Amino acid sequence: MIRVKNLVKYYGKRLAVNNISFNVEKGEIVGFLGPNAAGKTTTMRILTGFLAPTRGEAWIAGNSLQTSSIEARKHIGYFAEAVPLYTDMTVRSYLDFWARLRGLDKHTTKKRINEVIETLVLDEYADTLLGKLSKGYRQRVGVGQAIIHEPDVLIMDEPTVGIDPIQVAMTRQLIKRLGEKCTILLSTHILPEVSMTCERVIIINNGKIIAEDKIDNLSSMVGNARRIRLEVQGPSDDITKNLRQIKGVINVKMQDDRHHIVEYPANQDLRSKITEAVVKGGWTLLSMESVELSLEDVFLKLTTDEDGKE
């Protein structure tokens, strides 16, 4: 559904996107992640037809954005971080406006407005002015304009920013439901949301794609280290200092007064040495457990390591 090949974008002399290629298949929900100024927003603007690339090409539902831009854009729904709302319109009239912009006939427009209002649970607010809605409900209306024409591809930029936890949970479920009917490329800084919503992630940094895989497989890309969580009763600063002195330990991070994360090479087993160090210090080891890398851990490690190479 989305195909990107050798995409390059310069702003003057500054290289924003550096020869990237990736595919998003039909029915996938894919997270598109990157730190600030990584090239993420530029890529999304190219994919939605707002920007032309310097070089390379992109296709939406088999239509080239360079040679068949209008046809390609018919297949795209775009939810921007700053939702373009007209606050003097009602929810129903706003969706009607967007349906007409998308070229829907009268019968289809009426049908789709009712379907979208039902899908987004906006029945109670259908005739309410947008200016009187909370931010969470405005976000839903923004999603409504993006799906009114039943696009094959939905591109979403920060759909859960600034809304309360209840609305976040509802938005997460909404994205999963929408993913049953269309392909979704989701950009967000809230990594736990990606873990709960997306099947696969693409990570971009310094204009280059540095990782692309299913979430469960990403940890193997930085899997040259093993991590364990210790619960130790004793003076935390002294415990941290002693653990760092164990030969082979890569890093020790104190989570709180009792818990420490110890990182060491995956091809070694330092658990007995760690236990010995705790006992010798006169402290009590209450628990020891393996810790899997979270998406946030993987993201930070990959982007930090990549920055260090530049």
Question: Secondary structure elements and their pairing?
Answer:
Layout (H helix, E strand, L loop, with lengths): L1 E10 L2 E11 L4 E5 L6 H8 L7 E6 L2 E2 L4 H5 L2 E4 L11 H11 L4 H14 L15 H13 L5 E5 L7 H14 L4 E5 L3 H7 L2 E6 L2 E7 H4 L6 E9 L2 H9 L6 E4 L4 E7 L5 H10 L3 E7 L4 H15 L1
CATH-derived architecture of the largest domain:
3-Layer(aba) Sandwich
Percentage of residues in strands: 25-35%
Alpha-beta classification: alpha/beta
- State the distance separating the first and last CA atoms: 33 Å
Series of H and E elements: EEEHEEHEHHHEHEHEEHEHEEHEH
CATH class of the largest domain: Alpha Beta
Q: How do the strands line up in the largest sheet?
A: 6-7-8-3-9-10
Largest sheet: 6 strands, mixed
Instruction: Tell me roughly what share of residues is in helical segments.
Output: 25-40%
Q: How many helices does DSSP assign? A: 11
CATH topology of the largest domain: Rossmann fold
CATH evolutionary superfamily of the largest domain: P-loop containing nucleotide triphosphate hydrolases
Low-confidence stretches: none
Instruction: Count the beta strands.
Output: 14
Domains (count): 2
Mean pLDDT: 91
The Rg value, from CA coordinates, equals 24 Å
Q: What overall geometry do the principal axes of the alpha carbons give?
A: elongated
